[in-house]
Specification:
By secondary structure, the protein is mainly alpha-helical. The protein has one domain.
């Protein structure tokens, strides 16, 4: 393996892992501190049960840093393959790892799982079974009470099923946005380049979180609102970002080719 190819691959996954750690650490500390202020401490099992969900949640956003790191050596198809791999890992953690870990932890604490999870852990299969049961025998009124799972609106369960797919799929957009951002900012001075990449990454992530929250609230507001539309609505954010980056790249250097570098197939 050529040294440049090896360094590019280590750079992509290394930076993704580093930024995942940066995002995880304050989350863990804030949860521990909030637990202390509430008069208790976290059990080790509870902490472990939260990690699959945290990792699955933050991986797509950390992937932006991987895309930036690989912009000089990775071709677009190559960086997209890495984004797809991260998307798969994120989905497995969000759809299976997190709900099963929480379910097992709550069972160990004697929680009445039959009352809270009548269809088992809220994995994709559990969510679909839950929705089918409610559609077959709908309640008089829908609600979101924790102790009343058979009163959930079916559109909310549809949203939960699709939202983890959409969030994981954002990984592909994130690495592409990082790749394009890295190329676009290559000619800047080191401080300006760093600040520009920070800004692009943070603004994009915040915009996606806002869109995701808006989509979820819209679904919760009315049982007739589409759970599929609410879950996939945030994808408009990276699509708009890619369009803006394409315009900026054209304005910045309309006649100049992109940065020169070896491409990894």
């Amino acid at each position: 393996m050529r040294l440049k190819e090896r360094s590019s691959r280590l750079g992509f996954f290394g930076w993704t892992a580093a930024w995942l750690a940066v995002l995880l650490l304050p989350t863990l500390l804030s949860q521990l501190i909030s637990g202390l202020f509430e008069g208790g401490i976290w059990r080790p099992g509870q902490v472990v049960a939260q990690f699959p969900g945290w990792i699955g949640l933050f991986l797509p956003f950390a992937a932006f840093a991987g895309g930036v790191a690989g912009h000089a050596f990775l071709s677009t198809p190559s960086v997209l393959k890495r984004g797809a791999l991260i998307a798969v890992v994120s989905y497995l953690l969000l759809a299976f790892g997190s709900p099963v870990a929480v379910y097992v932890d709550e069972r160990s604490q004697g929680v009445d799982l039959e009352a809270l999870y009548p269809f088992g852990p809220p994995t994709p299969g559990g969510l679909l079974a839950h929705r089918s049961a409610i559609e077959a025998d709908p309640p008089e009124t829908y609600n979101f009470r924790v102790d009343s799972p058979l009163s959930r609106p079916p559109n909310w369960l549809t949203y939960l099923f699709h939202s983890v797919i959409a969030l994981a799929f954002y990984s592909v957009f994130a690495v592409l946005l990082g790749h394009r951002s890295g190329k676009l900012t290559t000619g800047l001075s080191p401080p300006d380049r760093r600040n520009a990449r920070w800004a692009l990454g943070l603004v994009g992530a915040m915009a996606f979180f806002v869109a995701e929250a808006a989509g979820g609230e819209w679904v919760r507001a009315d049982p007739s609102n589409s759970g599929v539309l609410g879950a996939w609505f945030p994808m408009l954010v990276p699509l708009v970002e890619l369009g803006i980056l394409a315009v900026l790249a054209r304005v910045r250097s309309p006649d100049r080719p992109g940065p020169v570098g070896s491409k990894v197939p």
